[in-house]
């Protein structure tokens, strides 16, 4: 059995520029991976079948699973006769805005590249990833990056200033398509992407706090007012800055002093079942 980690991502900025002819939206977003991860187990099969094993009832165990789609894409593209059993140990909350499924797909691409000895580069895997979902290309590389296009064009960035991240996910699932569908482009408050890039290059934590912004928040907060309440509580318990990740509903707070982490974590546990205190992974995995 080959095991591969599938880390979650958060969006430090998420800007939506306009709607594209293909129905997607042109985005400009800065994403970074955190040390909350699913674990993917890959085992070769001689029958050519792709099988998913997952204990999480919210995760499909058939062709709808993004890890399944990743395996099928490589098997069919490269004429692989073998199959694979994919065991998903889910730790990332589902439909949370943390790219759980996208990261599982990216981990499956990387693991099968090794298992089936395909010798593909990260860039080639990222191109395949883009066919599975808009966040998968970023998840193939990991680390920190500026994503543009529909999210599949990746420009690597250095690690952001070091800090703790507290993630709080209310017990609701959010459909990414519904959130993008609910966006009024002419009302978008554009985040300060350039300031965030400067904050990352200069390791300027205060500027990073100021520059955080997510154009999709306005839609999700209207659909789910409890997300606003979690943002307020996160600030009240001492976070330096707070933002919703992706299309939500997960809210993340950032804090530099470890002493405050427990107070925020314990404070949010009163409101959310799924609360995590995690670190930024920052740089790309050199073995990726
Ligand atoms: C919200 C984010 O997670 C932020 O990282 C991503 O932009 C969405 O990434 P994702 O979940 O991988 O998105 P996909 O699975 O490719 O698309 C799901 C749906 O979201 C909408 N979508 C997604 C990405 C994008 N740039 N524009 C869109 O309008 C489309 O309706 C699409 O059918
Ligand atoms: N491996 C997977 N893990 C979790 N969900 C999956 C997976 N494969 C397919 N799905 C489906 O995808 C939906 C979205 O799940 P996911 O956890 O990827 O959302 P997300 O974190 O909001 O993703 P993103 O941030 O990319 O929008 C789930 O409701 C689930 O039905």
From TrEMBL:
Position of the signal peptide: none
InterPro entries registered for this protein in UniProt: GHMP_kinase_C_dom, GHMP_kinase_C_sf, GHMP_kinase_N_dom, IspE, Ribosomal_Su5_D2-typ_SF, Ribsml_uS5_D2-typ_fold_subgr
Pfam families given in the database record: GHMP_kinases_C, GHMP_kinases_N
Enzyme Commission identifier(s): 2.7.1.148
UniProt: ATP binding residues: 93-103
Reactions it catalyzes: 4-CDP-2-C-methyl-D-erythritol + ATP = 4-CDP-2-C-methyl-D-erythritol 2-phosphate + ADP + H(+)
TM region positions: none
Pathway(s) annotated for this protein in UniProt: Isoprenoid biosynthesis; isopentenyl diphosphate biosynthesis via DXP pathway; isopentenyl diphosphate from 1-deoxy-D-xylulose 5-phosphate: step 3/6
Name assigned to this protein: 4-diphosphocytidyl-2-C-methyl-D-erythritol kinase
The gene coding this protein: ispE
